[in-house]
Structures are given as structure tokens and as C-alpha cells.
Amino acid sequence: MTIEFEDGFAAEKLFNQGYSYTYDDVIFLPHYIDFPTDAVSLSTKLSRNISLSTPCVSSPMDTVTESYMATAMAALGGMGIIHSNTTPPEQADAVRSVKSRRVPILSNPVFKSPDSLIVDQFDDDSLPCVIVTESGTATSKVLGYVFKSDWMSLSDKEAKLVDYMHTVDSKISVPWNYDLAQIDAYLKQQDHDFVLLEKEGEVVDVITKQEVERVKGYPKLGKGTVGSDGKWMVGAAIGTRQSDRERLEHLVKAGVDVVVLDSSQGNSIYQIEMIKHIKQTYPELDVIGGNVVTMYQTQNLIEAGADGLRVGMGSGSICTTQEVCAVGRGQATAVYKVSSIAARSGVPVIADGGISNSGHIVKALTLGASTVMMGSFLAGSTEAPGAYQYKNGYRIKKYRGMGSLEAMTKGSDQRYLGDTAKLKIAQGVVGAVADKGSVLRFIPYTMQAVKQGFQDLGASSLQSAHDLLRSKTLRLEVRTGAAQVEGGVHGLISYEKKAF
Ligand SMILES: NC(=O)C1=CN([C@@H]2O[C@H](COP(=O)(O)OP(=O)(O)OC[C@H]3O[C@@H](n4cnc5c(N)ncnc54)[C@H](O)[C@@H]3O)[C@@H](O)[C@H]2O)C=CC1
Ligand SMILES: O=c1[nH]c(=O)c2[nH+]cn([C@@H]3O[C@H](COP(=O)(O)O)[C@@H](O)[C@H]3O)c2[nH]1
Ligand SMILES: [K+]
């Protein structure tokens, strides 16, 4: 006997009532489980031609994604988008750096000639050692090395490197594309403390035993996001100015796999012309347009040729766009609306901004997105740019909006060069986030939590979640203020929140 009843709302009905809902406003009703958590696959598409095994993308912000973050995201099966708040050659170098290794470790070694002195260079916390080569560049013969500890214990800081460096008498390099297991085996076999990664006669990086041990302690990595060239895939952000066409040339030469047109309001004549230019000049290159939050914006960018779309206006943790400009949309509504149109053309959607827990990721992916893009969620990690600082007893990293006055002023005034006569208005803030450790550790745990959410919904893949959404099998409700309080921890005098 089948009983006819109606419980909860279909997304189509819920999101057509004139409210702008964000992730916390809505809740899914659980469905039926007939598979284990491990049967859930989160593999997905970033854009028409790029597949990922993990639906995570790091945001093109100068406190989130440079080469270190991008290598880690690729190693996790996601993707990093290198920010454009640098000169075009610097941004292209960051792309090359990602493509010149197959381990999520990056020590950015400094090269010196035998006659040089190191004055204070080791003050920078991130520099573990200096490599001494014949000419002092990465492309000449390696003669020796000096560790930070060697230099720190030196009484005469004016001594030449040649006088106290460790000389290299045997080969201490491996090919650039060795993976972690191969490097580990080599270090053990040779009993070395470190090894150089070498590519076409150039030292690309120094990998220490300590770093290999650190990464081995994290959840096991899969194959990662590797392109047909056998290299890690990486994206880069560009703008829509004339000068960005030149920037794009640098990036394409460096081997960039996808470009993201980085704008708060993507539905503009500038972006449409840029998409057309890219599709005409580099037909093989995927281009992601955005940001968009409405069906109309979506339709325009898809017609122009976008291979993927980035969704979110004002939803980011550092964003003030909705306050300053009075435009934007609640992120849950935006993701649902944009995805429902984009799906008709098979264009994948990136839910960008507003992610602060695994539940938000489940909501974004179930409401139609194919990936999530994160800023604040990643900015406190080991792999984010910048050094840790201490503030009020917390270990923190700086995190700032790309539309903050500080970010706009930093070098990247190019974006606004033509507008020097105009008054500059910030649409973002400068802040800080807490230390979260390595993304190599917390992203796998976060993805496990997302898989549990999918299991509760009865969805074993992103496609099946989207099918449940569109067939109206997936039911939702809006949470009242009290329901949101109830859904969180409440009624305790104190507690510690530890997810894994
Ligand atoms: N997702 C979000 O809610 C927001 C994100 N942001 C971030 O801040 C950064 C800056 O964003 P936007 O200010 O939107 O950058 P944008 O480069 O799109 O726009 C800056 C200004 O330049 C103008 N412009 C762009 N191309 C032009 C061309 N070819 N000719 C003449 N004028 C042109 C735009 O109309 C706008 O007035 C980006 O990284 C963006 O992701 C900023 C605000 C909101
Ligand atoms: O209004 C804004 N002013 C800004 O200065 C700004 N900078 C970044 N973004 C956007 O925020 C996203 C990251 O958001 P989360 O920290 O919430 O992940 C990013 O991915 C961007 O879409 C900005 N939005
Ligand atoms: K905001």
C-alpha cells in the first residue's frame, strides 16, 4: 500500500518565494540509505573539460593561493587558482613552480655562489637551506649546501659560504616528477637528510626528510589532479582589461590549465569580450566566467562561451559588497538558481564564498554546484601564503579581501590604472584567521564528513544528488532562528569543538 503524503519542500518551490537564503537558512531532510559512506564518490568537473576527484578549489586571493597551496590542492585531487595580484611574469612563475614537481612540498630554495655571504637571509622562517652552485643560480653545477642551523651556529657571520658549506661529492638529486614514495625510498636508501629535485639541469627544489615525514603523517594521498602532460593541473586568475590579454600570454606559455575571470560582477561587456577573445585565441583553454548570482547573468556568460561559472556576490567572509553596493544574493539561492540554468548547457558551477564548515559544502554541492571555492576555510593553513603571527594568544595568518584597500594598493593597481582619477572604494576587509594546520590533513577529514552528509541524503555521487534535487525527491525546509540555535551546540556551560 502506498500512502500519498507531502513532507518538506522541493527546492524549486522553496527558492521561489522571494527570499534570499544562505546555507545556514536551509536544511535538507534525510532520505534513504542503501550504501556505505565509502561508496560515495565526490568526483566532479571544475569546467567543461577538467575533471577533479575532490570538489575543492582554492580562491585566487593573495592570502590564499600561490604555488604552495596550488600544489597541495592538486595533490588532494582539487585545484588551486593562482591570484593575479602580482606582475604577469611572477604569476606565470608560480604556475611553472606547480608544474615542476609532483610532491605537495615547496621550500623555495635560495641559490648562492661560493663567494657570497648570507646576511640575515635565514631570518625568514620559511627558508630551510641555501644551495651553493657555481654561478649562484638554479641552473649551474651544485657544489654544496648550508642549512639554517649551520649558519645560526657560525661565530663569524661574514664567512664565505665556500669556507663552511657541506660539499656535495655524490649525486643528491632525483628527477622532478618523483612522487613522495619514490623520494622517501631514495632518501632512505642513500641515507641523506635531503634531496634536490632536478629538471633539465635545473634545481627545482630541495626536499628534506623532515618534510617527507610530515606529509607521510597525513591521510594517504590519491593520484591527484594530473593533466595529460603528466604534470599537476593549475589555474590562474586574470582580469578583463586590455593588459590582461598580455598576462594571459605569459600564463599560457607557463602551461596554465584553466583561467578564471576574476570579477565581482561577471555579466559585463568587458567579460563577454574577454571570453570571446580567449575562445578564439586559445580554443583548447577552459575559461571560467563570473561571478554571477542570477539566471540572466548565467545565460549571458554561457552564450559568450564560458566553460564554467563562479557563483557568489557578497557571500564571502571578507566581503562587504552587499553593504557597499546593495547588490548580491544569499548564497544558497544563488547556487541553486545559477546551477539550474547552467545544468541545461552542461556548464559546471563553482560555489564561491561563505563556506565555513563541511555542512556548507554538502549544501553547495547538493543545490547544484560541482565544486566549492574557499578562501577563509584555507587561509589559516600551512600552505597559505604568509608567515604565522601571534595575536591575543592565537596563532594566526593574515586574510584579506581582494577588494580591500590594502590588496588594491599592493602592486595590483594595474586593475584600476585607467581609473587613477577616480576615488577608490573598498569592497572587502583585512583580517586574520586561526592556524588550521595543513590542508593535506584537514581537507581529507572534511571530505569524509561531506560523504557522510551525502549518505544521509541517499546520494552516492554529485550526479545522484543533482538528480534527487531536480526530481524533487530531495526535500528542504527553511530553519527559523530558533531552529538554527537548536541545530548548533546549546545549553552547555562550556565545551570543546573538535571534529577529528
Ligand atoms: N565575489 C564577490 O562577491 C566579490 C569579489 N571581489 C573580488 O575583488 C577583486 C576585484 O573585483 P572587481 O572590483 O569586481 O574587479 P573588476 O576588475 O571586475 O572590476 C573593477 C572595475 O573595473 C571595471 N572594468 C573591468 N574591465 C574593464 C575594461 N576592460 N574596461 C574598462 N573598465 C573595466 C569594472 O567595471 C569595475 O568598475 C576580485 O578578486 C574579486 O573576486 C570583490 C567584490 C565582491
Ligand atoms: O566582496 C568581496 N570583497 C573582497 O574584497 C573580496 N575578496 C574576495 N572575495 C570573494 O570572497 C571569496 C572567499 O570567501 P570566503 O572567505 O567566505 O571563502 C572569494 O573567492 C571571492 O569571491 C571578495 N568579496
Ligand atoms: K559578506
UniProtKB/TrEMBL annotation:
Assembly notes: Homotetramer.
Location of this chain's protein in the cell: Cytoplasm
Catalytic activity: IMP + NAD(+) + H2O = XMP + NADH + H(+)
Binding site for K(+): 314, 316, 319
Entries under NCBIfam families matching the protein: IMP_dehydrog
SMART domains (alphabetical): IMPDH
Name used for this protein in its record: Inosine-5'-monophosphate dehydrogenase
Main location: cytoplasm
Pathways involved: Purine metabolism; XMP biosynthesis via de novo pathway; XMP from IMP: step 1/1
GO terms for biological process, alphabetical: GMP biosynthetic process; GTP biosynthetic process
EC number per UniProt: 1.1.1.205
